[in-house]
Design brief:
4-stranded antiparallel beta sheet, about 100 residues, rod-shaped
């Protein structure tokens, strides 16, 4: 692992096939960033017959403000049912009596 420039690292892997060399290179680069609890971004890479070269960054993991803004909020709880109205006194005919009138 070499630092190519500030915050950009590089490595070269060798294997019997280009695909194997590339897989190993990406795995090593990802592990390097994971050890530092950071993300992983490829800056550039080159595949040769039995060699893979990769330049990568390990950016700080930050909250994504766009994803947070688009996140669906949890559904709100429904309002509680209304309190029942107090019983109104009724006169002999079953009509509600008005307090204070009689």
């Amino acid at each position: 692992m070499v630092e190519l420039s500030p915050e950009v690292f590089g490595l070269t892997t060798h294997a019997s096939t280009p695909a194997t060399a590339a897989r190993r290179g990406v795995e090593l680069a990802q592990a390097y960033c994971a050890q530092r609890e950071r993300g992983f971004d490829i800056v550039r890479s080159e595949i040769w017959p039995n060699e893979y070269r990769i330049a990568f960054r390990c950016p700080r993991i930050t909250a994504d403000p766009v994803a947070e803004a688009l996140a669906v909020p949890a559904p709100a709880l429904p309002p509680p049912p209304p309190e029942p109205a107090p019983a109104t006194a009724r006169n002999r005919r079953g009509v509600p009596s008005s307090p204070g009138l009689f």
